[in-house]
Amino acid sequence: MARDSCLARVTAGVAVGGAVGGAVGAVYGTYEAIRHKVPGLLKIRYIGQTTVGSAAIFGLFLGAGSLIHCGKSY
Question: I want to staple 47 with a disulfide (CB 3.0 to 4.6 A). Which of 15, 16, 29, 68 is the partner?
Fold first, then answer.
């Protein structure tokens, strides 16, 4: 497989998007759980749902952007 193959770029885009989305989701989920006074262990569940959801969305969009950009040659 070539070093700069399209699949490698899309995979890297999804991975970076997932990492960034997870970090943003964890921070935002923590803020929202504290702000809305989510009780007890439900905070962990709420933060986890926000983290996974944000990671999935960011990863999807960054992967799609990498796929679109992959076909262009400059």
Answer: 29
Provide the 3-class DSSP secondary structure of residue 11: helix
Distance, CA of 37 to CA of 16 (rounded, Å): 31
**Cα gap 23→16, rounded to integer Å:** 11
pTM recorded for the entire structure: 0.84
Q: What is the pLDDT of residues 8-67, one digit of tens each?
A: 999 999 999 999 999 999 999 999 999 999 999 999 999 999 999 999 999 999 999 999
Cα distance between residue 54 and residue 18, in whole Å: 8
Calculate ∠ Cα 19-23-25, nearest 5°.
115
